[in-house]
Amino acid sequence: MPSDADNFLVDEIPIPAKSRRDMKAACDLQFELKGKDLERLRVDLADVRGGRVLDQIEGDIRDARRAAYRTVLFSGHVGSGKTTELRWLTHELEKEKEGRCFHVLWVDALEYLDINSVQLPEFLVAVFNAIAEDPLLRPLLGPSKTAKKLWASVRGWLKSIDVDLDLEIPVGVAKLKAKVKTEFGLQKRMRETLRERVTELMTDLSDLLIDLRAGLARGGIDDLVIVADNLEKIVFAELDHQSAKNTHDLFFIEQLPTVQRLGAHIILTVPVSLHFAHARLRQVFLNPTVKVLPMVPVHQARVPTKPHERGITVLKSLLSKRVDTAILFADDAAFARAIELSGGVIRDLFRIVLESLSLKPAMGLTVADIEAGVRDIVSSYERMLQGKPYLPGLHEIAACSCFPVGFDEAARNALLHSMVVLEYNGETWYDVHPLARRTRAYRSAAPAATS
């Protein structure tokens, strides 16, 4: 739920933006749609993404029996619009429908955690910290003996590593949150201290949720939903670990399923690469709802020269909601080229616009301006791909719109995580990002032409 302090873009600038400065603000990659911005600027992309995923998630939560809590594993590439869609889901869940409404607790990994290395102990503390900063839940902590007990325990445990926190929960939480983001290595030291206390943390958090649920009920709110966003951005790294091959397996497969015991509806964002371990996800999570938010297709599967007209149309609509595209682009060819080169990645479409605007002092971007605007992005893919052993395999993916049999698992995960390969909707198909295709590394690995 947006706070009173939120500044909405639609209140600051004319929408759609017409000036260069306003267009940059409207396409800012750090800009998150909330409140009035969400209602004005969001475009429903469900029809070109393989179905009404949000409606299914909302229905599963609303239709669940009391105390029969749902776990949702929600994934998609970085830049696919997951946060926007989860904000919209929050908006819908907090409405009263058929006599029921929910309060959504938002736990943003980027706000509460150092995503370079995350494990369960610090995630549980992040959930408590988010509760303490939630405008609706914070007042309910005062009367809760469980909240006081949990905070006293956390303070005591962290004092052993020279972290002194205030007795007052909101003040202490704000201090801890700032320390985690600014003190190198603190999160790891917290983890080592809290590792043996996970069971106690889980028990106290579960009891606290019972107190909160009772307080919400007094205000006419039926239940609580926890959304843990941006977890998929936790850094992927190979591990020399006895049971987990990498940081994602360790956190998402081995540790995170524990949170199902908290006793709440919970939506977790997970890396898209983990869906190749779909069977494992269903083994470690109890009857989860598993949903993927694919990219918007800009061409047909296996036929990159054949445009996906509906996908292109909705992306045009999405950008046109934010900026006056008749002023931004010199002609429709430039608009179409920007969409084509984005690969249907919403964030990349905005980035192409921003890069192109930065290089040209006047408005009216041409095809040549768009081509100039993507050079730095292509260079970043070049540095990423040079010398990689999987380069020939990228051409196989491009040819069949799939990962070939026997494709190396670690390489596949890395390609999806780095967005060199993108996932699309319908039958579920894959393609190499258009800007990765432009690299010398990719072109030089092309199979020899047969005579």
Layout of secondary structure:
Blueprint (H helix, E strand, L loop, with lengths): L8 H4 L7 H7 L8 H7 L11 H11 L7 E5 L6 H12 L8 E7 H4 L7 H14 L4 H4 L3 H15 L9 H14 L3 H9 L3 H21 L4 E7 L17 H9 L9 E6 L7 H7 L4 E4 L6 E2 L2 E5 L1 H14 L2 H4 L3 H11 L3 H14 L7 H7 L1 H11 L5 H10 L8 H9 L3 E3 L6 E3 L1 H4 L2 H5 L7
Parallel strand pairs: 1-4, 1-5, 2-3, 3-4
Antiparallel strand pairs: 6-7, 8-9
Summary tags:
451 residues, 24 helices, globular, Orc1-like AAA ATPase domain-containing protein, P-loop_NTPase
Label the structural class: alpha/beta
The end-to-end distance, rounded to whole angstroms, is: 62 Å
Distinct helical segment count = 24
Residues in β-strands, percent:
5-15%
Shape: globular
- Stretches where pLDDT is under 50 for at least 5 consecutive residues are none
Strands, total number: 9
Biggest sheet: strands, sense, closure?
5 strands, parallel
Q: Give the helix level as a range of percent.
A: 40-55%
How would you describe this structure to a colleague?
The structure is a single chain. With 451 residues, the protein is of the alpha/beta class. Among the domains are: 51-292, no CATH class; 380-444, no CATH class. The chain has 24 helices and 9 strands. It has helices at 9-12, 20-26, 35-41, 53-63, 82-93, 109-112, 120-133, 138-141, 145-159, 169-182, 186-194, 198-218, 247-255, 278-284, 309-322, 325-328, 332-342, 346-359, 367-373, 375-385, 391-400, 409-417, 434-437, 440-444; strands at residues 71-75, 102-108, 223-229, 265-270, 289-292, 299-300, 303-307, 421-423, 430-432. Strands 2-3-4-1-5 form a 5-stranded parallel beta sheet, with helices on both faces. Helix 18 packs across helix 19. The protein is globular. The N and C termini lie far apart (62 Å). InterPro entries: P-loop_NTPase (IPR027417). It comes from Nannocystis pusilla. This is Orc1-like AAA ATPase domain-containing protein.
